[in-house]
Design brief:
Layout: H1 2-20, H2 35-61, H3 69-93
Length: 96
């Protein structure tokens, strides 16, 4: 149960961080990030959270179960839904 909560919180954080922070991957300073770079950061966050999920599953069950392509499509869509508040804040709500 705690692992699931950690995974959901990490997903929401990693999905919204590219839209909130002006730093590249929250580490390197940048003057202005393009939308393409922000989407690349979202993809990197998805891979990072996927690695965390893989590690948590392996720790809890001893092995990670194999998944088909449908699983990855659904989790990617859920990650994009998690990123929506950050996108709205950055491009639709905030005055430039």
């Amino acid at each position: 149960m705690l692992g699931t909560l950690v995974l959901v919180c990490a997903s929401v954080l990693c999905a919204n961080l590219p839209f909130i922070s002006e730093r590249v991957f929250a580490l390197f300073p940048s003057r202005r990030k393009s939308l393409l770079l922000r989407l690349a950061e979202v993809l990197g966050g998805y891979l990072l959270v996927g690695s965390l999920a893989f590690a948590l599953e392996r720790q809890a069950h001893g092995a990670a179960y194999s998944q088909s392509w449908e699983f990855y499509v659904v989790t990617a869509a859920l990650f994009v839904v998690f990123a929506f508040p950050g996108f709205v804040y950055r491009y639709l709500w905030r005055k430039h």
